[in-house]
Amino acid sequence: MAQKLPKFGSYSHNITTVIELSRTSAFGRNLNFVSKSSTESRLKIYLGISPFNFGEKMESHKEYVSGLGKESKIPPEIKGWNWGAFFLNWIWGIGNNTYIAFLMFIPFVNFIMIFILGAKGNEWAWQNKKWKDVNHFKSVQRKWLLASLGIIGVFFPLLFLSVSSALKGEAYDQSLSIIRENQQVIEMVGKPIEPGYFILGSISTQGPNGQASLEYNISGPKASAVVYVYANKHAGTWNLEQVVVNDEENHKKINVIPREN
Q1: Domain limits, the chain
Q2: Within 13 A of 244's CA, how many CA atoms are on the CB side?
Q3: Which of 43, 44, 68, 121 has the fewest CB atoms nearer than 10 Å to its CB?
Q4: Buried b vs exposed e over 8-30: b needs ≥16 C-beta within 10 Å?
Q5: pTM score
Q6: Choice among 150-164, 169-183, 234-248 with the minimum mean pLDDT
Q7: 168-257: CATH topology
């Protein structure tokens, strides 16, 4: 009975064992192997490998080796934009041994550097760190992308809420109180009048003086509208200069406090 041929893991793995087995078994005799060199040549043909490109196939397993710096050849599969490097920049740089990302701490350079990291991140990470294979590399970079999206999804809403909270000062409170008592606004949006969660605009103060420019939404049973507020602060007291309620959907505008010329 012919001996069972062992399973190959790669072109190089157990090749000598298979050649020797083929010479000493019925498998080898059936192929008329007469020498080790002819055995190897015929085995290549039997495996569907041309003797002329056998060395190239063996070498292809070693072609894309990571962690060799500039000597590492970049696999075509990983070329492209790296969002993890773009969003997390220097943090991503530490995790991928790409310390050029610390240029993010240099003013003016940092704005350009985030785009360079996005474009060159995959290449630098492959060159600077050892990876098992391309799939391992892609898997890790995908995790960096998910981490960046998670951080952005939490950080920016919190930042927006903190800014909105900072704008909810005396000027905001005064404008909302006046709007809730204005009969024209009540007729337009209904009662009760509720403000939105977010406020846009700016507040600047210098000692006892300051200026505020605010924008926020209100809603009622009948409609919703946008409120625009302009206020000045003199000697520590805020005074509303103009308050406008605009219902863009119904093309209605109410000057609750008109601006003085």
Answers
A1: 15-62, 69-164, 168-257
A2: 13
A3: 68
A4: eeebeeebeebbebbbebebbee
A5: 0.50
A6: 150-164
A7: Nuclear Transport Factor 2; Chain: A, (3.10.450)
